[in-house]
Design brief:
Blueprint lengths: L2 H13 L5 H10 L4 H26 L3 H10 L3 H21 L2 H10 L4 H37 L2
C-alpha cells in the first residue's frame, strides 16, 4: 500500500458515519503513520464534514413541515437543554457515545443554533481527537492480540 493509499484510507474512515475518528486514528497508527499527523488530518476532516452537515441540515429547516416539527419540539425539555449548556456537553461528549454525525443530525433536527453547532463541532474536534489519539494505541494493541489469536 502506498502512503497516499494509507492517508486516503484514514480520511475515508473518518468521514464514514459508522467508523469516524474512533477507527481512523487506530487505523493510521496501524499503518505506521505519525500519530500527530493522523490526529490532525482526522480532526480537520471530521470538522469539515460536521460543518457541511450542519449547513446541509440547516437548509432543510426552511421547509414548512420540518419548521413546524422543530417549532413544536422547541418547548420540549430536551430542546431547552440543547439551547442551554447541554449543547456543549453533548457535542463534546456525544461523539464518544453516538458519533459526531449522529449528534449533529439529532441536534440540528431539534433546532439547535447553526453557529453554536459549528463552534462546538470545532471544540469537539479539538478536544475529542487528541483524546482518541491518546487511547488509540490501546486499540491497536488489542487488535494485534486479536490477530495473533486468530492465527492459532
Amino acid at each position: 500500500m502506498t502512503p497516499f493509499d494509507k492517508w486516503l484510507a484514514v480520511v475515508l474512515t473518518t468521514i464514514n458515519p459508522l467508523t469516524g475518528r474512533g477507527m481512523a486514528i487506530p487505523l493510521g497508527i496501524e499503518f505506521g503513520l505519525p500519530i500527530v499527523l493522523v490526529s490532525l488530518v482526522s480532526g480537520v476532516t471530521n470538522f469539515i464534514l460536521a460543518v457541511a452537515l450542519v449547513l446541509f441540515v440547516d437548509r432543510f429547516g426552511h421547509i414548512p413541515w420540518i419548521r413546524k416539527y422543530i417549532d413544536r419540539k422547541r418547548g420540549n425539555k430536551v430542546t431547552q437543554f440543547i439551547q442551554g449548556k447541554g449543547l456543549l456537553y453533548s457535542v463534546v461528549l456525544g461523539p464518544f457515545i453516538l458519533g459526531t454525525f449522529a449528534v449533529v443530525l439529532v441536534f440540528q433536527a431539534l433546532g439547535a443554533d447553526r453557529k453554536r453547532m459549528i463552534l462546538y463541532s470545532l471544540l469537539s474536534a479539538i478536544i475529542v481527537t487528541p483524546v482518541l489519539a491518546w487511547i488509540s494505541p490501546l486499540f491497536v494493541d488489542i487488535l494485534n492480540q486479536y490477530k495473533r489469536m486468530l492465527h492459532f
